[in-house]
Every structure is written in C-alpha cells, then in structure tokens.
C-alpha cells in the first residue's frame, strides 16, 4: 500500500483548513489531529431537522433545507458517523427510528 509523504499530508491539511466546511474540518481534526468527536456530532446535528431527518446542504450538491431520504441516508452512511461512540449513535438514531416509523405507518 502506498502512503502519503509528510509534505503531501501537510498539503492536504492546508487545503482542508482553507476550503472545508466546519463538518469536514472537525472530522479531519478528529481523525488526524486528536480532535474532539463531540464537536463533530454537534455540528452534524445542525443539519438535522425537527422531524429527525437531515437537510440544509449536508450533502453539498443538495441545498434543500427540508429533510429528504437522500440527505438522511447520506448523514447516516458517511464516515463522520464512525467518529461517534455507540451510545451517541444510539441516541441520535432514536430520531431516525421515530421518522422511519412515521413513514412506514403512513397509508
């Protein structure tokens, strides 16, 4: 497996710091700079709506502020969820369970 050189890693870090949104920056900091995973979860929650779904351009190509299945799927399948503990995941996913239950029981 090929590894990045120290210079290449520093170049990536510079790009992240100059261009990334807060969610991606905090994820980078958590994964590579001993950052706080709670901060990742806190900023991820800002994309969540009261119905438990996600919107607000969480997925950068979808600027719909309303919850959508696509953006909610994006939220629960992306790598930043690997940064949260099992307990935090369970607490956050309770909202998804409520949303899914409501969708499944619609006639």
Mean pLDDT: 77
Count the helices. How many?
5
Question: Low-confidence stretches at least 5 residues in length (pLDDT < 50)?
Answer: none
Overall number of structural domains: 1
**SS class:** mainly alpha
**Biggest sheet, open or closed, and with what strands and sense?**
none
Distance between the termini: 52 Å
Roughly what fraction of the amino acids lie in strands? Answer: under 5%
Radius of gyration: 16 Å
Q: Based on Cα principal axes, name the global outline.
A: elongated
Write down how many β-strands occur, each being a DSSP E stretch of 2 or more residues: 0
Order of helices and strands: HHHHH
What fraction, in percent, of the residue positions are helical? 55-70%
Structure, briefly:
The protein is mostly helical.
Descriptive notes:
- By secondary structure, this protein is mainly alpha-helical.
- The chain has one domain (9-104).
- The protein is 59% helix and 0% strand.
- The protein has helices at 6-19, 22-33, 37-45, 69-77, 86-104.
- Helix 2 runs antiparallel to helix 3.
- The longest helix is centred in the last third of the chain and has 19 residues, at 86-104.
- It is elongated and about 45 Å long.
- The N and C termini lie far apart (52 Å).
- The relative contact order is 0.11.
List keywords for this structure.
single chain, mainly alpha, 59% helix, elongated
């Amino acid at each position: 497996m090929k590894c990045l050189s120290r210079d290449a890693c520093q170049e990536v870090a510079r790009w992240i710091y100059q261009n990334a949104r807060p969610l991606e920056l905090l994820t980078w900091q958590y994964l590579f700079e001993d950052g706080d995973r709670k901060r990742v979860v806190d900023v991820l929650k800002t994309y969540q709506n009261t119905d438990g779904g996600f919107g607000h351009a969480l997925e950068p190509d979808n600027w719909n502020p309303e919850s959508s299945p696509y953006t909610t799927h994006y939220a629960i399948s992306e790598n930043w969820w690997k940064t949260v503990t099992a307990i935090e995941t369970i607490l956050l996913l309770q909202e998804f369970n409520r949303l899914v239950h409501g969708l499944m029981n619609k006639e």
